[in-house]
Design goal:
This protein is an alpha/beta fold. The protein folds into two domains: 213 residues, Rossmann fold (3-Layer(aba) Sandwich); 171 residues, 3-Layer(aba) Sandwich (Rossmann fold). It contains 13 helices and 13 strands. The strands form three sheets. It has a seven-stranded mixed β-sheet with strand order 3-2-1-4-5-12-13, with helices on both faces. The protein has a four-stranded parallel β-sheet with strand order 7-8-6-11, with helices on both faces. The longest helix has 21 residues. It is elongated, with a radius of gyration of 22 Å. 52% of the residues are buried.
């Protein structure tokens, strides 16, 4: 796009794996631009497919979206502008900044995770070294919940609600078929952190509910302990639900998954097949019928499981990023606040709770986010025995407000 007109422009982009609420953050940015508050913005553009769009000059004019458009956008999963996993190379910086200059871009909001914040930080440094006026601000996004400097990440609450809900539904199915199917292995996303897998235990009431075995990257996989835990559940309740993060490793560092298909542009290994590996192991060693459930992208696209607090927080994070840029701030990411209770509703957040006391949003330098990873604390996971609760009360206290009020418990005869 190049219409020959240079007007003060705010640019917004989305990057990395989408979440159920990533578009709410985009809507929040647009809310701030349309608010009528004192601001420098004349036009707001959206990058098509993140930084790849910047290299090609592919943008969409978002200035004219109405309030109803923004509300519909906020409740739509996946990245409406298109996402990417592009690593910004030094030779790319000049091309991106030339595109920004041609479009009159003076402010840039990027919604993403660790790698996206690294891209944003590098762009700010490159612009400064070239004398290009550019304010940048990051909005956190990831179902992995592993970003440093923020209490939680938009996207996690909704994906966690998905896992907490479907794990109980799968458990009831397995319990009904336990004379034939004995074990189900469910595979959760998560690069190096077990936040999402752990959320599968949130609605667990007793030993009849799954998960019975929880496998996370923070705890080295032990084959003997794993098989013992499965056997214990089979002996006590007649079936076993296993939830495993896709990237679990053995004590010596090898991935449990059979397939590691190279790495992405950021050097992260592409690991596949951990559920199948565990299922084969269980059938071979214990001789029991085992199924595999791999939600895949379903866990990050389910609107039906969207958390009200997650939705509101994501939208407010976008607003705040645009607001801080308007006030001259740059070089940080929005830090999400502690949510004190699961009864905090979407309307309460949008109505002003977020601006008071512990509800105030903080900020964290982009470089801090880019160079750190927030893993599941030791005090959030209990011992693995196939019978007891795999997560602690501390974890439940942390995650319940993000997930929201649980659905009615499933009935058992």
């Amino acid at each position: 796009m190049n219409d020959g007109t240079r007007v003060p422009t705010l640019l917004v982009g989305q990057s990395g794996g989408p979440t159920p609420v990533i578009n709410a953050s985009l809507a929040g940015v647009l809310d701030r631009v349309a608010s009528g508050l004192g601001q420098p913005y004349i036009r707001v553009l959206g990058l098509r497919h993140g930084i790849e769009g910047a290299l090609r000059g592919h943008v969409a004019d978002l200035t004219g979206l109405t309030a109803s458009d923004r509300d519909a956008l906020a409740n739509t999963p996946a990245a409406a502008l298109g996402s990417c996993r592009k690593r910004l190379e030094p030779e790319d910086e000049r091309g991106v900044l030339e595109t920004f200059a041609r479009l009159g871009v003076e402010w840039f909001v990027y919604c993403g995770g660790n790698d996206s914040m690294d891209t944003l930080s590098r762009l700010e440094r490159a612009a400064r070294s070239r004398g290009h006026p550019l304010g940048v601000y990051g909005v956190p996004k990831t179902i992995d919940n592993d970003l440093a400097g923020t209490d939680w990440c938009p996207g996690y609450g909704s994906a966690a609600r998905y896992w907490a809900t479907v794990t109980q539904e799968v458990t009831r199915d397995l319990a009904s078929m336990r004379t034939y199917d004995r074990v189900v292995v469910m595979e959760a996303m998560g690069r190096n952190a077990g936040w999402l897998a752990a959320s599968s235990a949130l609605f667990r009431r007793d030993e009849h509910d799954g998960p019975h075995v929880l496998l996370i990257p923070e705890v080295a996989f032990d084959e003997v302990r794993f098989l013992g835990a499965v056997e214990a559940a089979l002996a006590r309740v007649g079936y076993a639900v296993v939830v495993a993060t896709e990237t679990i490793r053995e004590a010596k560092g090898a991935y449990v998954a059979r397939q590691v298909q190279g790495a992405d542009q950021f050097g992260h290994p592409i690991v596949t097949g951990v559920a199948e590996t565990l299922a084969h192991l269980t059938m071979a060693r214990l001789g029991v019928k085992t199924r595999v459930n791999k939600p895949g992208t379903l866990q990050r696209t389910s609107v039906a499981h969207m958390s009200a607090v997650d939705l509101a927080g994501a939208r407010l994070a976008g607003w705040i990023a645009a607001d801080r840029l308007a006030s001259g701030q740059s070089g940080s990411m929005v830090a999400m606040p502690v949510v004190p209770t699961s009864e905090v509703t979407h309307d309460a957040w949008m109505g002003g709770w977020w601006g008071e006391g512990s509800g105030s949003f903080g900020e964290v330098p982009l470089e801090t986010v880019a160079r750190a990873e927030r893993r599941l604390p030791d005090g959030y996971v209990a011992r693995i025995d196939g019978l007891g609760d795999p997560v602690t009360q501390d974890f439940r206290t942390y995650v319940r407000p993000l997930v929201g009020v649980p659905p009615p418990p499933l009935f058992r005869l």
